[in-house]
Amino acid sequence: MRMVRMAIAAIVSLSLVSTPVIAAAPAPVAADHGMVVSAHRLASDAGIAVLKSGGNAVDAAIAVAYALAVTFPEAGNLGGGGFMVVRWHDGSKGFIDFRETAPMAATATMYQDKQGNVIPGLSTRGYSAVGIPGTVAGLELALAKYGTMPRAQLLAPAIGLARDGFVLERGDASFLAEGAEDFAKDTPSAAVFLDHGKPWTTGHRLVQADLARSLQAIATNGAAAFYKGSIAKSIVAASKQRGGILEMSDFAAYKAVERDPIECDYRGYHVISAPLPSSGGVVVCETLNILEGYPLGKLGWHSAQGVHYWTEALRRAYHDRNLNLGDPAFVKPDVERFTSKAYAAKLRGNIAPDRATPSASLPAPGSGQEGSSTTHFSIVDAQGNAVSLTYTLNDWFGARVMAPGTGILLNDEMDDFSSKPGAPNMYGLVEGANNAIAPGKRPMSSMTPTILTKDGKLFMVVGTPGGSHIPTAVLQVISNVVDYDMDLGQAVNAPRIHEQWLPDKVYYERYALSADTIRILEGMGHQMEPMDYWNQIAAILVGAPGIGKKPLGDATLYGVIDPRLPTGLAEGY
Ligand code: DON
Q: Taking the CB of the first residue and of the last residue of the chain, which one, N or C, has fewer CB atoms within 10 A?
């Protein structure tokens, strides 16, 4: 009896000394010199090899991006586009926009029938959905501006993986199988990704000879090989044959663009994120500015009150996003206002502490106010330079077409435009005229490659795929670390919520909210809806595994890949 009582006393005192009660999660991968966190183990290997041979974070990013185009065809790409945030150890920053553009023959109503109804599938499958790819131009600009290694050396791992093949692990095979039905309808895709019409199984060596040749041409001739040479010619020829509107002049005109990132501060942390044509930085900064006015930590992680404030902040940020934002070459939304503390304070003034704001009570598109596939990787090198890069084909495997002889899957990024103001896109986003289609315009994105600093020092590198769920996932990882005392493993693994103004719902991953919490939120007027996984966060924390946590020996870098997708690796050295 006495023994039992002593044992109980020991347990009680143990739980008193161990601080907050937080679900356990695998510890972050710790390293001293460099860290690469990507959606595929072989792409992370390629990045680490570059870092070890003296390349900087941008060199490694270029090698990882080309390798992912081979090993992670779900989203790694040459036929898509994306955004890269760089922060150098001296504090200087850069941003490269290599988002796709609409072909010159595109029109605002190209996806509508004569009655003005959106034609299902036209903006998501086949050549009619394809925007002019930006990835090769973006990686070339990054190399010219920041790289230190020869292009051929950075493409070599990708070329080897395509030419000699790589053996599919279970995660690779099961993920590839998801595209099987569409691959079967596209002869070049079927020749690579199917075995007599059936998905390849674990253990198969996936060889991509055409892709190896395309990569070799880029290694030798740079962006010209893609935009002016045989690759563009094959894509344009296939597009003309199969209902697309792509022209050689669209490819010749494509340009990656350098921009200033969006920046803001949150409880002493400095946020550097993606500017227009991505909405990511605006949504992150506007939401954080609103949330800063609430004592989130004290309210408790996923308490009903905390989730209520999160929801109301997100509702307002997405409302502004959806109605106002678009390509800055075409529209001029007041980004400074949307990301200012004063505007956030004004919005907070309209948030009731105990009642949901009906989304329909905020103005809708047309009222006059408006003037999943992606992948993210995070890299830090031995000097402390950081790259946060998200790029995409839009849907997994994009438009599910591959131009003959190229091995290159093409994007369906045109669906990120508003096919018709007020009509939801593939992510259920309801947007206004500022994101309408126009020739040469970039579709608005949600991709949110982000870097955080603290007192001028690198603190976090973070990003994810997930369409409209990207900013919310990035926000929750930041807040889990800053507000809720989680280490990076807990912050990435913790279940998430999502809200995007319309539909008027609070989405939650299973186990994210207790039944009691859901009941309280419903009582406030929130419409609660369970959701599946949307994201794969790839994140790095610098200094320690979490704020106030003990470093592991000498390790300064802590990497985590989100387990919500079946492939990916955080790798350090
Ligand atoms: O740019 C965007 O916002 C979308 N095209 C991203 C798509 C995406 O993240 C899909 N991921 N699974």
A: N
Residue 169 belongs to some domain of the structure: yes
- The number of domains in the chain is 2
Question: How is residue 168 written in tokens?
Answer: 């599919």
Strands 528-531 vs 538-542: parallel, antiparallel or unpaired: unpaired
Longest CA span, the chain? 86
Q: Is residue 474 domain-shared with residue 546, that is, in the same domain?
A: yes
pLDDT score for 372 = 54
Q: Which residue has the tokens 């597009």?
A: 239
Q: What does the alpha-carbon distance between residue 365 and residue 363 come to, in Å, rounded to a whole number?
A: 7
| pLDDT (average), residues 247-270 | 98
C-alpha–C-alpha distance, residues 307 and 495, integer Å: 13
pLDDT in tens, 355-365: 999 999 998 76
Domain co-membership, 264 together with 397: no
Last-in-domain residue among 435, 457, 473: 435
Cis previous bond, 28, omega within 30: no
The two structure tokens encoding residue 208: 């991509």
Same domain flag for 101 and 59? yes
Are residues 470 and 397 part of one domain? no
Q: In CATH, what number is assigned to the domain containing residue 492? A: 1.10.246.130
Taking CA atoms only, the protein residue closest to ligand 1 atom 11 is 372
Considering the chain, what percentage of its residues have pLDDT values greater than 90? 93
Note whether 456 and 426 are same-domain residues: no
The arithmetic mean of pLDDT across residues 187-193, rounded, is 98
**Ligand 1 centroid, distance to 83 Cα (angstroms):** 12
Select from 491, 496, 494 the least CA-distant residue to 558: 491
Task: Give the domain range for residue 333.
Answer: 259-360+367-371+448-551+560-572
Quick: pLDDT tens for 337-361. 999 999 999 999 999 999 999 999 9
The yes-or-no verdict on residue 421 having pLDDT over 70 is yes
Q: Is residue 137 part of a domain?
A: yes
Q: What rounded mean pLDDT belongs to the chain?
A: 94
Tokens standing for 65?
């991006």
User: Are 250 and 264 in a shared domain?
Assistant: no
Burial of 62 (0-12, 13-18, 19+ CB in 10 A): buried
Q: Quick one: average pLDDT of 172-180?
A: 96
Residue bearing the CA closest to ligand 1, atom 12: 372
Residue 7 has pLDDT above 90, yes or no: no
Residue 401 sits in the same domain as residue 458: no
Q: How many helices (H) and strands (E) does the chain have?
A: 20, 21
Residue 16 lies in a domain: no
Q: Say if residue 4's pLDDT is above 60.
A: no
Assess whether 374 carries a catalytic annotation.
yes
Q: Does 428 lie in the same domain as 288?
A: no
Q: What is the pLDDT of residue 366?
A: 56
CA of 425 to the centre of ligand 1 (A): 12
Ligand 1 pocket check for 536: Cβ under 6 Å: no
Query: What is the reported pLDDT for 22?
Result: 53
Percent over 70 (pLDDT), the chain: 95
Cβ atoms of residues 508 and 318 within 8 Å: no
Task: Evaluate whether residue 133 is within a structural domain.
Answer: yes
* Cα-to-centroid distance, 573 and ligand 1 (Å): 30
Catalytic residue among 311, 374, 390, 453: 374
Contact 381, 184 (CB under 8 A): no
Q: Which of 428, 471, 432 is nearest to 339 (CA)?
A: 471
